[in-house]
Amino acid sequence: xxxxxxxxxxxxxxxxLLGVALFALTGALLAAKERQTFVTMAFFALVTGVGGGTIRxxxxxxxxxxxxxxxxxxxxxxxxxIAWFTPTKWWDGKFLxxxxxxxxxxxxxxxxxxxxxxxxxPVPAAMMGIITGCVGGIIRDVVAGRxxxxxxxELYVTAAALSASICVAGMMANLPNVITWSVATTAxxxxxxxxxxxxxxxxxxREGKAGIADSE
Length: 216
Hints:
Blueprint lengths: L9 H24 L4 H22 L5 H4 L1 H15 L10 H23 L4 H23 L12 H16 L4 H22 L18
Helix pairs in contact: 1-2, 1-4, 1-5, 1-6, 2-4, 2-6, 5-6, 5-7, 5-8, 6-7, 7-8
Main location: membrane
GO cellular component, one term: plasma membrane
Subcellular location: Cell membrane
């Protein structure tokens, strides 16, 4: 089992704060587009920024990361302040989608790497990466009362799964962590970026396909 302190490196710290900031921005901007109060905007920023990491830490029996680190909540609130004082048109277009995609893959890598250092087996560790990357956005969408990304066929969870899997594979192969984390984040973000640009999506389920007989 790797020592938990092994994860506390500058690269992972940067990935952690980057993921928090980008996810917090998506939450704050969603509240802004809904013309909510600053309190609601700050809440959305916080719950989106820390939601996935909180669930991960509870599942792997680790201290909840943002409770012990004063910077995390401060970054979420600071992001909400930025969103409050900037017009939403600044963030129009695909910027929000790409920001969310970068946060998704950076967080997936962080979650998988942290799970590995806590002795979680490879497959569950990859799942922890997916949870870290996706759950904050899911909570954001559910609280906002809009269809969650998980209910659409976009390559979203798939991008998180790619990043988390590469991270786990690289760490199992004892490759340099900086290379592993960089490649994993880049690969997932490229997949998510291409999916956004070209509207790539997974095929949806159809009755009668994949060997399942029609009910007719």
